[in-house]
Design goal:
The chain is mainly α and 240 residues long. It has a domain of 80 residues. Helices cover 58% and strands 5% of the residues. A two-stranded antiparallel ribbon has the order 1-2. Strands 3-4 form a two-stranded antiparallel ribbon. A hairpin with a 2-residue loop joins strand 3 and strand 4. Helix 2 crosses helix 6 and helix 9 crosses helix 10. The longest helix is centred in the middle third of the chain and has 15 residues. The radius of gyration is 18 Å and the shape is elongated.
Length: 240
């Protein structure tokens, strides 16, 4: 990840202050999670997540699905499991992007992680980028930091891999605004549509990146989508 120092310059600090609304937005996205049906939710704002604009009230699960479950799909991977499974090369790519292109959000994460350890952010930011990444990865291994992992992966996907979203959504027949934004994710994804989406991703993107996206997509519901689960199981490349 390079060995250059990345202590913030005065210009960076001024830019950081200008971007405080984004920093506050990022903090809100993982500090105000609530548990509803065992899921983390974002109750205070609208948040773009993997092609879906989540409403303030929470992830929605139909009453029929809650009261009359017909079967149980395998639980989707957790954020911790996904981060571990993608391996060092893709982790390095994601962290480097985050450090370089999403500085306000990166600073917000460092502020949160150092605050939890009662450290000054500058103590970490004065280290080389590689050392910062190693320290951040160690902190993200803590169980309580799962929501932060989700946010980091989501930001990387949304900001740097937008074509991946539209590729899957188009192939799976899920309507969006042309940029990958979906107002309402479907209650069901038919197996043939899911199969088309998985095939389109694997044909257009590196397998590990496609698999990362698919697993992140699946964790947006308690048990994911049954059709997508079957499509992923049919393609070894989509497994992490």
């Amino acid at each position: 990840m390079g060995g250059d120092k990345s202590a913030p310059t005065l210009a960076e600090d001024i830019e950081y202050q200008k971007d405080m609304p984004l920093v506050n937005w990022f903090f809100d996205s993982f500090s105000d999670f609530r548990k509803v049906l065992g899921l983390p939710i974002l109750p205070r704002f609208t948040f773009l997540i993997l092609g879906k604009r989540l409403p303030d009230e929470s992830h929605r699960v139909s009453r029929r699905a809650q009261v009359f479950p017909t079967h149980r799909n395998p639980d989707p991977m957790t954020a911790h499991q996904i981060l571990e499974a993608i391996g060092p090369e893709l982790r390095s790519q994601i962290f480097t992007y985050f450090q370089t292109n999403e500085r306000p959000a990166y600073r917000a994460v460092i502020d949160s992680l150092t605050g939890a350890r009662k450290l000054r952010p500058q103590f970490i930011l004065e280290k080389s980028r590689a050392q910062q990444a190693d320290w951040m990865l160690a902190q993200l291994g803590m169980k309580s930091n799962g929501p932060i992992i989700e946010q980091i992966l989501q930001i990387w996907l949304l900001k740097s891999q937008g074509v991946m979203l539209t590729t899957f959504l188009d192939a799976a027949g899920i309507e969006h605004d042309g940029k990958g934004q979906v107002d309402e994710l479907p209650e069901d994804i038919a197996e043939d549509k899911a199969e088309a989406g998985v095939k389109a991703l694997l044909a257009a993107f590196p397998a590990k990146q496609a698999a990362l996206y698919l697993h992140m997509f699946q964790i947006q519901r308690p048990e994911g989508w049954a059709g997508l689960t079957k499509a992923m199981e049919a393609h070894a490349e989509s497994k992490l």
